[in-house]
Specification:
With 240 residues, this protein is of the alpha+beta class. It is built from seven helices and ten strands. It has a six-stranded antiparallel sheet with strand order 3-10-6-7-8-9. Strands 1-2 form a two-stranded parallel ribbon. A two-stranded antiparallel sheet has the order 4-5.
Length: 240
């Protein structure tokens, strides 16, 4: 990997000047402040269906954009911005969040969110807060992504009824994964959480609304069927 990632042939970067201005504007802020600012700047951006495209037989391109998002690229972009002090760092962080060992290849992309969770947890980039007696265990057989072999996974999640008891643990910048009720899918949606006193807000790119929006987390939980939710905490500095 070259030191100047902006010269990589595998990179497609939109909004490069806007990204540079945003990173510069967050100088001196804490990590929590940077996550709140970066995710807020992307509110009202359009929703994009499958923005990364690609396939097992195609050359993978590292796509970095502030133009439009699905739920996963939104959290990756907001988090990578908050973690970065330069454009090169921003590109590197997206690459490392999205691909196993930073290898830009369709088969190395974390297509399922349980893969994303496990990989970034192993790298010390996130901490899984989903533990304790309130959790339940779910097992799924993942086979919805054409070109990937079927595999069986198990994970812990909080049932919706436990929200009021675990809400006090949530901090601004935490990530939430919503567990699917489907037996062939692990997670159906994801977003970033913002604390406003006792209220928890969900920032997410939603197909239904066609954009990145902010709404009370409690209303999303009430309106959507799910097997439960997973809470993750990004780590600003990895242990060496």
């Amino acid at each position: 990997m070259s030191e100047d990632l902006l010269t990589e042939k595998i990179l497609r970067f939109f909004n490069i000047r806007e990204a540079a201005r945003l990173i510069e504007s967050m100088a001196g802020k804490t990590f929590h402040e940077r996550v709140e600012l970066s995710s807020a700047q992307l509110i009202k951006r359009p929703y994009a269906e499958n923005p990364l495209g690609g396939g097992p037989q195609r050359e993978e391109i590292l796509s970095v954009s502030l133009e439009a998002f699905d739920c996963v690229t939104y959290i990756e972009t907001a988090l990578a911005l908050a973690l970065s002090r330069s454009l090169n760092q921003f590109v590197k962080n997206i690459r490392e969040l999205r691909y196993e060992n930073g290898k830009v290849a369709w088969l190395a992309r974390n297509h399922y969110m349980t893969d994303w969770l496990e990989y970034n947890q192993s790298r010390g980039r996130i901490v899984n807060l989903t533990r304790g007696k309130e959790t339940v265990r779910k097992t799924r057989t993942l086979d919805l992504v054409a070109g990937l072999p079927s595999k069986r996974v198990s994970f812990s999640c909080f049932p919706k009824r436990a929200f009021s008891r675990v809400a006090e643990r949530i901090e601004t910048g935490d990530i939430i994964l919503f567990a699917s009720v489907k037996k062939r899918l692990d997670v159906f949606h994801t977003g970033l959480l913002i604390r406003r006193g006792d209220e928890i807000l969900l920032r997410h790119a939603t197909r239904k609304m066609g954009a990145v929006i902010e709404q009370p987390l409690a209303s999303f939980l009430k309106e959507n069927r799910m097997s439960g939710f997973i809470l993750l905490r990004p780590v600003s500095k990895r242990k060496r």
